[in-house]
Design brief:
Largest sheet: 5 strands, mixed
Strand content: 15-25%
Strand order of the largest sheet: 5-9-7-6-8
Shape: elongated
Number of helices: 6
């Protein structure tokens, strides 16, 4: 008997590419096949001339299988992401532990020299601004060895910041007090650094009048 195609339905799972193809040739019979473009998720053909009332069961079964494969992939990815996240947290915690330094009430200029980021490239990096000493290890790419602002590490960086310069001053230049514009510029730099890095103490011998507005 010649069949008349009443419906041709394709159900596709976007994650696994598994699909169920349903051909309905009469009100009682249909042809149902479940496939996968990937051999490892191949689903055997359900059969031919399947009664119409089995369409739902077959479709649900194929969809469930596709969902299972999709869920397995997602679970594997979630597990992998969780492992990466845990390793990253451990790595960051270890970086912070190695770079931490115990705050002191007073630091000397000689004390700062030991923390310029060269001796221990994963340790603390100290610099002073307006008499406050900060641990700037989180900005290691700026202040560490080879960084753009490395000249300021392990020392009093006040005049560098006030003048927006990265070159050493001559003896005669050092004897000249900061002008109003330089002091205002320093104030902006001071609050930027204070808001980003940990304060670990005060610098010995700092004269507040040398930078006040």
């Amino acid at each position: 008997m010649k069949r008349h195609l009443l419906a041709n339905i394709l159900f596709v799972c976007p994650n696994t590419k598994a699909f169920t193809h349903v051909y309905i040739s009469s009100t009682k019979n249909c042809h149902i096949q479940a496939h996968s473009v990937r051999p490892e998720t191949h689903l055997q053909a359900i059969g031919t001339d399947t009664p119409l009332n089995l369409i739902v069961a077959a479709t649900v079964g194929a969809a469930a299988a596709a969902a299972w494969f999709s869920g397995a992939e997602n679970r594997a990815k979630q597990t992998q992401y969780a492992e990466w996240e845990a390793k990253e947290k451990e790595y960051q915690a270890e970086k912070e532990r190695r770079a931490r330094i115990e705050p002191r009430e007073i630091w000397t200029v000689d004390d700062l020299k030991h923390y310029n980021g060269e001796g221990d490239e994963s340790g603390p990096i100290l610099l002073a601004v307006k008499g406050d000493v900060f641990n700037v290890w989180k900005g290691r790419h700026f202040y560490g060895k080879g960084g753009e602002y490395h000249v300021m590490a392990g020392r009093d960086a006040t005049r560098f910041l006030a003048k927006n310069r990265l070159e050493e001053e001559s003896e005669s230049e050092l004897r000249v007090e900061l002008n109003i514009a330089e002091r205002a510029n320093l104030e902006a730099w001071y609050w930027t650094i204070k808001n980003k890095y940990e304060l670990v103490g005060r610098l010995e011998g700092y004269d507040p009048k040398s930078t006040e507005l």
